[in-house]
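User: Look at the shape:
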Amino acid sequence: MNNYDVIVIGGGHAGIEACIASAKMGCKTALFSMNIHTIGRLSCNPSIGGSAKGHLAKEIDALGGVMGVLADKSGIQFKLLNTSKGPAVWSSRSQNDKDLYPLFAQELLLSTQNLTLINSNIKEIIISGNRVKGVLTETDDIIYANCVVLCTGTFLNGILYTGLNGIAGGRINEQSSVSISKNLLNYGFKTGRLKTGTPPRINRNSIDFRKLNAVGGDITPTPFSFRTTNVKNTLTCHQTTTTEQTHDILRKGFNESPMFSGIISGKGPRYCPSIEDKIERFSEKNSHQILLEREGLSTDSVYVNGFSTSLPRYIQEEGLKSIGGLENCIILKYGYAVEYDYFYPNQLTPSLETKSVQGLFFAGQINGTSGYEEAASQGLIAGINAGLKFLGKPPFTLSRAEAYIGVMIDDLINKESEEPYRIFTSLAEYRLLLRQDNVYKRLSQYGFSLGLLSENDIIKLNHREYLSEILVTLAQETKTNPTVINSYLESIGETLITSTTPVNTIAKRQKSSLKALFESNNTHVPFPTDSNLFDKAEIEIKYEGYIQRQLAEIETFRQTESKLIPKNIDYQNIKSLSAEAREKLIKIAPISLGQASRIAGVSSTDLAVLMLYIR
């Protein structure tokens, strides 16, 4: 048992996706974890999805990954966010039972063929020449492998801070990994430091719910995965806010904050800041929203969303008790920050294989990202490519025009950032085409060809696409009766029609509903339908013009992506390039002109020079 095709290190969300993907592709895979009983733990917020993150979770599902299935099994509240806006930004989110999610993850791993779970710390990645050979365990056992996927999360030289006290650890009550960073630095890899944090947890029995606003889930909850038929929606969250008094109390502890004192050098996530960071950066605000989210159905632990902090314990307690409804709260676990090593992601290829060491892949927070969904997406891509590497097949990548996963990885390897990367819909140039409702149309064929989706899966998904196309065709071919339709149009405040008109023409109107139009017009649909199927068809009809425009833009994008840069190009010989462009091109080594065009510091003039040189 000392020889594997693929070794995955780390049992977080990246590691789970990576090892299951390579195992399903037929590779003999081992997952190493310092504690196999903590695999799949929801370290911070017990939720999956959210704005743009929901897109990633759905894309994972469409490719044959498992995050969506695990979220559906352990979910206790489901919501579709941003429904007041356009369909491009509709995004799924679930609140999850923190105890059930890891149990379902571990159960799935243990039942996966070709996969072995090994409870051991890794001291060293074994490299010979420019190729990975395996790993050295804490007991000095050498385990050989063709490929290694490193998914270490916040555990590389992790230090936990509450106040000015720092202790080694990757998570509360869990040890850090102290040797891998030094090991890889010896092979020329470059590292930096980042910071993230988590809020306190409080006892729900100590909360005065009379002073809080209830926040429920959707009436008709929608699962993440196409493989799920029903989900639970039994949890109600509650909302409150901080006050000026809260802010004054927390300011008293700023001189004991590891962030403000300079003890923590790594930057934290800009879009998920600590409460002290929010008070400092947005000093004009009198309050900040706090969402109280129960962490499971069999626990009294409540997650104080919006109160991430590393302030001293006595300040945390005093601050919480100044918030409406929390005057008598009992703290079960104090908030803390964790600072950890990450590897600059420009050292990776688009397949997430390292440029300098063949067969070595990085995935998750080791690449400078934040969030479960970002980590899981990278783990899936790295696991797929580790499997393909072993099988002697070309790497699998997704472009910015195909998936948010493609946007994220392209951003990581091309754009330098000093803070943890988080996905946003605004980062995608073609977000109208990267919607949740068309995710299976975009990506499921890839999952099937890679062996991650079964034949039954793809038949089921293709059938649903076929039904949606029938609805679109039916709307094009069905003529409306003005007498009948005008009563519906009047009810929604739309302009009346004077002659027979195709249903799809009226469906393009902003307030109209395709389902309601069919019902008003007594249009017979020859198969069972649901609201999601009608929504899918309606979006295709309503946004047809915009979709065609983005498809044309994507064609131009693909042309630049197909113009490859020779591997042996010497940028030092291209004298007309600016010094900054030459430095960045040497550092990142882009594969195509399209990739080169997205590197910060490479101007349009530099790109023109490069195109001319290659020609």
Observations:
- The chain has a mean pLDDT of 94.
- DSSP finds 20 helices and 20 strands in the chain.
